[in-house]
Each structure stands twice: as structure tokens, then as C-alpha cells.
Amino acid sequence: MGFKTKQIHDGVTPDPLTGSILTPIYQTTTYVQDSVDEYLAKGYSYSRSANPTVRALEQKLTSLEGGADTTCFGTGMAAINAVFMTYLNAGDHCIVSDVVYGGTYRLATKIYSRFGVEFSFVDTSNADNVREALRDNTKLILTETPANPTLKLTDIAAVSAIAKEAGIPHGVDNTFLTPYYQRPLELGADLSIHSTTKYFDGHNATVGGAVVAASAEHDEKIRFVLNATGSIMSPQVAWLTLQGVKTLAQRLDGQSQNAHAIAEFLEQHPKVESVTYPGLASFPQHELAKSQADGFGAMLWFEVKGGASAGKTLMDCIEVFSLAENLGSIESLITHPVTMTHADVEKAERERVGISDGLVRVSVGLEDVEDLIAALDAALAKV
Ligand SMILES: Cc1ncc(COP(=O)(O)O)c(C=O)c1O
């Protein structure tokens, strides 16, 4: 079956009781058992451990990513936390891409560092850097590609091969491209991690997360942490996400086409200093973008001539786009990472990895592209 068929049908069967085509929202805490000896015969005991609506989403995501199984969480950060908690103990070392979502950086540097876990933030765009950063106590490699917000890419197959040689898992944050465009497990990674808040939901309606594991062994370990820490996704969120995923491919194609057109418009605009989009020939890793993914995605960033203050003027006056955190939804959003998504990354670290004060991040939505370009043109005229 093709992806568009699978995104609609996989993981979901008509409700056995009523025939309801949509999996119901199983709003329940507990599940009545037939007898002590038949405990868990129907698969469910308590909704912190598993819930049928959440399970339907897990099965759908497993199919789309080509994994062994999936565990869904209350947020993307809860998913990343579960990955850290599963593989890292006091005294261990973890390699993380030097450009990652600010919340991932915060979790590592402000929380896990308190428990004696060491992190190296490595430029994983060059796989040799990953090999050089390996230590005897390295227990996990976590990459994010494309990375939030600079869109730097990591060669997933090359880093996965290094992780395999070292006998440690490689987790990839696949939030920006989703399995429709990029399937890390097919390239050798052990875990594909998502903030389902973004493209899977697609409508700015929920927060959620997921870890798709390449093997049942990895999934069992992750699921143990889910149950122990009580971080499961709610059935309402799973239900909304189940509906969102059904149009993932069409949304991502439409949003990416809009992003490509906007990137080309910005690239020739006299008031724009630079624009970064993996689909442009000027993107430094354009060839890798073409070879490891089936599409370029709907995220881009640019800098306005005149630096941070010019960028702020644009963000404050632009119409159609909303000034907001989040990405991946059908509404176009504009974000200033330095004050919003990456505020907890120290200035020196931001500068080291290229998150400049003037960086304007755009999550391109599904509006008419002419209206989006006209809004950008009008805002640039006011700068
Ligand atoms: C790449 C990436 N991973 C993880 C997260 C965290 O997800 P959530 O906000 O659902 O906790 C985000 C949030 O922006 C993100 O952009």
C-alpha cells in the first residue's frame, strides 16, 4: 500500500461493538478483568500503561515509520525525556546534535546534568565529529535532522553506522520531516522520535510525542519508562492526532510547495540578507537533503538586512502569519527563536551554532502562497 492509503487506514479497525469507523475515545481509567487468571487477556488494565485510542495511534505511526512498535507520550519533550531516561545512567555520556530544539538542550543541560550525565553537543553534520566525540562511557547518540531552527542536516545512515559499530543506540528527532519524507529506521537508526504536536497533528490543536522503535527490545524499554513515569498521551489527543495524520502527506506536500516558493521569493528580495531552505541550490547540504529525504519540508529561516531590530520590525507588523511558537500546522507561523523557542540556550552557545539574534524562523502553512508572499513583501516594505 502507498503512504496515502496507509496514513488513512493503518492502525484503525471499525469499533467491534458498534462498527464506528473512527476508533472511539476510550475515556476510561480502568478495564474490568474476566478473572484473576485471565488478567490482561484483553490487553488493558489501567490507562497510565495503555489505552485503546492511544494504541491505535501507536499502530498507525509504527506502520508509517516502518518500525517494530511505537510508544506515545503526553508531549514531544516527554518522548525525548523517556529516551534519555531509558539509556542514560549517572556517569554516562551522550552525544547530541549541537543544533536541537531548545527544550532538548534545556533538558540535557539543566536536568540530566544534575544526575551526573555528561553531554557533548557535536556538529553531527560531519559524521567524523561523532566518531571523535565517542567515549568509553557514551551510551546514546541523539540527532535532530533537519535541526530546529537552522535546518542543519545529519547524515542519518553515516551516524547510524558509527552507533552500530560502537554498540549504542542512535535516536533521530524526525519531527521536521515526518515519515512521509524521511524514515530514519530504514537508514539504520534505532529510534525515530516525534513531537506529534507538529505535522502529525497539523492543526495547532494538541501537544503530544512519540518514539517509534526499530526493535521490540527498544520499545519494551521505552514503554517501561512510560509506565513508570506516567507520561502517556491522553485519549483525546490520540483521537485528534489520529484524524490529523490522515492528511499528513497532502498537507506536507502543499506546505512544502509553499515554502519552496517563499524561499525563492525571499532569495531575490533586496532587503533580505540570507535565506535558508533545504530545497534551494544555495543550501550547503542540498545534495544530502535530496538523497536522504523525499521532500524538503515546510520550514525555512531568513535574516533581514539591518539585523535583529529589522527582523523584529518585520515580525511585529506582518499579517496573515501569526507570531507564535509551534510549527507544522496549516496556519503559517513566524517565530523569533532567540526570544521564544531557544531562549534557554546561552548566547555564546547560540552564536557558536549559528542561531543569530536576527534569525526569523518560518513554519509555512497551507494558505494561498500568493497571500503569504504578499504579506512578506508588505512587511519587508515597512522595514
Ligand atoms: C524538533 C523538536 N523536537 C521536540 C520538540 C518538543 O515537542 P513538544 O513541544 O511537543 O514537547 C519540539 C518543539 O518545538 C521540536 O521542535
Describe the structure.
The chain has two domains: 3-245, Type I PLP-dependent aspartate aminotransferase-like (Major domain) (Aspartate Aminotransferase, domain 2); 248-382, Aspartate Aminotransferase, domain 1 (Alpha-Beta Complex), CATH 3.90.1150.10. Helix content is 39%, strand content 15%. The protein contains 14 helices and twelve strands. It has helices at 3-9, 52-65, 76-87, 102-111, 127-133, 156-166, 178-181, 216-229, 235-245, 248-267, 286-292, 307-317, 347-353, 369-382, and strands spanning 69-73, 93-97, 118-122, 138-144, 170-173, 191-195, 209-213, 272-276, 299-304, 322-323, 333-335, 360-363. Strands 1-7-6-5-4-2-3 form a seven-stranded mixed β-sheet, with helices on both faces. A five-stranded mixed β-sheet has the order 8-9-12-11-10. α1 runs antiparallel to α2 (52-65), α3 (76-87) packs across α8 (216-229) and α12 (307-317) crosses α14. The protein is globular and about 75 Å long. The model has no long low-confidence stretch (mean pLDDT 97). Pyridoxal-5'-phosphate (PLP) is lined by residues 75-77, 101, 103, 144, 148, 173, 175, 195, 197, 207, 209, 341.
